[in-house]
Amino acid sequence: MKQALHFSLQGKRALVAFLRLWLSKALAAFEPPCVRFPPSSCYFPPAQIPDTNTFFVKGIDYTNHSLTLVDRDTTDNSACPRARHNLTLEDVPLEYSKHDTHLTFYYNCTSSLPASIPVDCLTSGEKKSYFYVGHNEPKDLNWYGICEDKVVATELDVGWIRGLGAALSDGFVLDWRSASECAKCEASDGLCGFNNSTKDFLCFCKDSTIKFDHCTSKGRILPLKLSIALSAVGTAIAVTCCLICCFRFRKLCDLCVSLTKTADQNVEANLQQYGSLAPMAYSYSDIRKMTSSFKEKLGEGGYGGVYKGNVNGHPVAVKILKASEGNGEDFINEVASISQTSHVNVVTLLGFCLNRREKTIIYEFMPNGSFDKHIYREDFRLEWEVLYKIALGIARGLEYLHRGCNSRILHFDIKPHNILLDEDFCPKISDFGLAKLCIRKESIMSTLEARGTVGYIAPEVFCRNFGGVSHKSDFYSYGMMVLEMVGGKRNYNAERSHNSEIYFPCWAYHRIVLDEELNIRDRITNEEKQIAKKMILVGLWCIQTDPLQRPAIGKVIEMLEGSLEALQIPPKP
């Protein structure tokens, strides 16, 4: 390994190329049981379970980089299940969680074991079974001549409340061992890697060295005296600048106003290229007047706040964007994108304001607000027919954005929060801050940084090994949202614990394959069950990992409008 610490640029490129090739082969052969590829790095191997015939994945927690496994022999709802399988983690980048407790079972023993706990329900004649908690068995224990078998099982340390059977059936948690190491490596400007033979984590640094944790910043630590001297000089310069500012405050303010005005003029120039399609420009005083000085706030998001306003007797929604650096690209994206649209399922842009630092966008007012305020409520659920019409309307809106405009508009942030509902619960796609315009014939975008919301981002957006970024990336987000509509809860939830984490798309897929009852809501009619199953199948097709397997948006609409019997079960997501 020491010989590999320093190598030529050509050697480094060859190594990176090898890692890319290795990863592509690993991904091609990897068919995990609903375990999605870890999004932290394209150079880190998937968390693959050694033997899916003996263990199955019960849940995944992408926030804590962990997954819950259950021994298949302990899932028969028996009060006295027998664990039969040992799990070896030597060949996978996984480790037991701090929440796990190991149980060492000794089966069919002819005599008692010292300081052990008997398992009375497994007694067979004169043979009894025992177990130890946390590897507490005596070091000199000679069980070979006493017991027939030894199995080390694992369960969550909180599982004892409901008994041994429930504890084993709840499963245990494994952490992705090097996820935190990869984060540290990337934070030090390194590239995450993995030694496939030794299973060691590697960090490739810019100075052509390989580290086992993170890159070091040689040459950046200055001698103490030099640091003090530089600090003193810096302080003196800062004080001088402050004095100059005090004397020239007015000129500096004039300069700031001039720079802000120039930036706004640049944004206006970008919008002018859209000619007659450019929306109406309002002054900041107009904005204050139409919102009654921002009296009624409708909502708040990462972009800023939304206020209710009134223009010529008609209610409007006024979105105040937070101050941002750069050339106002998000603002231009949103205004320019929606200016080209006119569709019942796309929100209508009425105007904008550039007279202040807080850029403002004016929309038509939606009485029922954003979809996320309705989809996750426990006290009130929308009717299945309404949910179906909302799903169909959003699909038609996406079809229009992708095929109905002069330029193809890729949204890149389809989620319930960005779907608005009018008084009749007609859905309208909104918030085009992350949108990209491309020519209609262009199917793959060559360069694009990762964008979107966690839980709805297509795999190819954050890792190009899955395929090219295209309009089908919007389909993935749409599919995840449709599945949330059926399940009534978020597929991705950072607040879920290890015990309660259930990945709904996987759960729904297995129910559909086994033709089992969904049991999603109480008092559901047969017709509503048909709607739910149809939406699940459409959602599962749209969230296929391979973009090529996702249906075209026209096909999605056809599937929603057609019969359930005509739909095929998609591959496992």
UniProtKB/TrEMBL annotation:
Protein kinase domain sequence ranges: 292-564
- Taxonomically, the superkingdom here is Eukaryota
Q: Which SMART domains match?
A: S_TKc
Q: Which UniProt keywords apply?
A: ATP-binding, Glycoprotein, Kinase, Membrane, Nucleotide-binding, Serine/threonine-protein kinase, Signal, Transferase, Transmembrane, Transmembrane helix
Major subcellular site? membrane
Gene Ontology molecular function terms on file: ATP binding; protein serine/threonine kinase activity
Q: Which GO terms describe its cellular component?
A: membrane
A Pfam family found in this protein is: WAK_assoc
Instruction: Give the range the annotation lists for the signal sequence.
Output: 1-28
**Membrane topology, record value:** Single-pass type I membrane protein
Amino acids binding ATP: 319
Q: Which InterPro entries match?
A: Kinase-like_dom_sf, LRK10/LRL21-25-like, Prot_kinase_dom, Protein_kinase_ATP_BS, Ser/Thr_kinase_AS, WAK_assoc_C
Query: Where is this protein found?
Result: Membrane
**Would you tell me the protein name for this molecule?**
LEAF RUST 10 DISEASE-RESISTANCEUS RECEPTOR-LIKE PROTEIN KINASE-like 2.1
Its source organism is: Nicotiana tabacum
